[in-house]
Fold each of these.
Amino acid sequence: DAGITQSPRYKITETGRQVTLMCHQTWSHSYMFWYRQDLGHGLRLIYYSAAADITDKGEVPDGYVVSRSKTENFPLTLESATRSQTSVYFCASTPTSGSNEQFFGPGTRLTVL
Amino acid sequence: ELKVEQNPLFLSMQEGKNYTIYCNYSTTSDRLYWYRQDPGKSLESLFVLLSNGAVKQEGRLMASLDTKARLSTLHITAAVHDLSATYFCAVDIPDMRFGAGTRLTVKP
């Protein structure tokens, strides 16, 4: 399907486990982003990527790792999940130039027990 | 510290009334975005404001940007129930910073 997709949509894991959230976009957008959404905080940027093999930290990167070997994929890994990482995670993308309006995926609801 | 502040955070309106949501930000930027989020859903882009004085309108919503005052407004005219949602502003400074959101409920 065209657009931006995330998987899984729901995930329950335990403290200390590694978890990878997937994001895939079909628009060939250069920029991709990961956000977490928590009540009262709006969305906070975790990591972003300007192109394949180029990533940079956002506002709340600690405890997360990203990679971008292909333009269309931008996985987010929690190397050792903690309860504080329970959140809804959104992936987004935007073209190289223009308005920088971001297009969001459907989100992944992650619960860490 | 970079801040994007929205107010009010919660807004309950009667159908047919007008109201304004405010978005203040703490550093220079000439790019501001408004998004809508329905409960349990993703974010949908509403407006992109790219310069001082920019005004955009769609249906009962109108957004404006004053970069000198570091202020954007989202004005709701004659509210209807379908506008019930959470509205976020976001500022490109240069990585995107979001406000905490305004949860709007429109009551009949």
Amino acid sequence: SQQGEEDPQALSIQEGENATMNCSYKTSINNLQWYRQNSGRGLVHLILIRSNEREKHSGRLRVTLDTSKKSSSLLITASRAADTASYFCVGPGFQKLVFGTGTRLLVSP
Amino acid sequence: EAGVAQSPRYKIIEKRQSVAFWCNPISGHATLYWYQQILGQGPKLLIQFQNNGVVDDSQLPKDRFSAERLKGVDSTLKIQPAKLEDSAVYLCASSYWDSLNTEAFFGQGTRLTVV
């Protein structure tokens, strides 16, 4: 399967805390993308990390990639209520965008 | 830059009726995707177009679902006849070339309720 599997399935934290979610995949990838989905803005691309990169930052987001372990992690620092959403890792291997079930993040004020 | 446009936003139909969804991708985007997202699940890829050719339709229930991409731009997804289990949000997305190196942009979706 080309889809990523996110862990945990659900995560509940307080505002200001950090949130970490993980992704494992089975096939080789050229890059791995993270997407966010909430009721307000729909499904939105967050960040893309290439297979030759180990870490990437974008604002409060930090993504790591370990191709030897076929895993990635997304860290959201200083979380806000607006970060409440489902997060998906998407590992295209062959010109596909295949989504897993995602991590549902709830950030409480 | 205008986003991916989808219509209608909501649709309620009775089972065995037919329904069609329309998608206008971002200008210049060669790749267009249709996804089905059932409540509580991740989006499931139904069909992927590259320009007006089909790249992947392995998960499209072809006995009832059909899709076309007109002149490599707009696309329509049709369900005929609809079943109760087709109740879902149908998402359209587009990307510049393919998913290897570029992000996909998603529309707001069409929420279909089959009663």
